[in-house]
Request: fold
Amino acid sequence: MADYKEAPLASRPKTLDPNEYFNLSLEYRRAEEERSAIRSNLKLQYQTQLNNPHRKALIEDPALNRWMYARSHTYPHFKTTFKTSLTGLLFGVVPVVVLYYLFKTDRDKKEVDIKAGKYDRRFSLTS
Amino acid sequence: MAGVGFRRWAQALSRGKGSGLSALLPGCRAASGGSKTDLPSSYPLTPEAKAAAAKKYNMRVEDYKPHTDQGEGYGDYPKLPDTSQQERDPWYQWDHPDLRRNWGEPMHWDFDMYIRNRVDTSPSTLSWSSMCKQLFGFLGFMLFMFYLGEKYPSYQPVAPKQYPYNNLYLENGGDPEKQPEEVVNYKI
Reply:
């Protein structure tokens, strides 16, 4: 293999991985060939549509559509379990309640100080 | 021509079985675009469903692994390795070079997070533990030293300023007739 040193911020590219060329098992080769076949088929479909001189519209990507659909239609597959309820509580209820109490107590303390005349407005620019 | 079409439509309506607005709409859809079976659906329970889902997502049956069904809303969407697009081969001729992705390739659930402008999972020069130790070690040391400096301050010795002429008796408004008390600011 050529003298390739691993770059500090990059993973080794697949084409320079010696395991891709030596000591290959038949199953691995078959798997790679199947993947390559799927990839080539998709490439053919894309290139046909891309180079079609009569095409006016943009090329629709069904994988992108599926991704968008999956991301926006999570509710039908939602189930109330311990994990999901905990997540809902931690992210939806706890911040609201905690922040309410923090702000309320801070503001009440400030109000008491102002009423007693002890509020420190040394650096205030608005009064 | 339009008249013929209208007559046909009225005839179809009278023969049709639907009622209400659905009766007015045509009973067929355009053949363009994907069908309902092309879209993601619920978690595959049987091996046949798994194979069909793998085919739908353009993946090998062995490669296709759905997210574990814990009610989080993934459905049958495949679980792809959590690597960013920055880690992909920069020299390969991708269909979309900026995204380093081919047309039709299944997208990671968090694809919009893993684009090259955002989260990057490329290996770093140092290990995580080494980085943590260096950063928090430095911060901890600086905080500790500043705390010590606050507790035990160390500066040049100072004293109140000493003025001549009996602490400036005349300048401070002292009576010129009266004799001021002698102020000695030194010690020999």
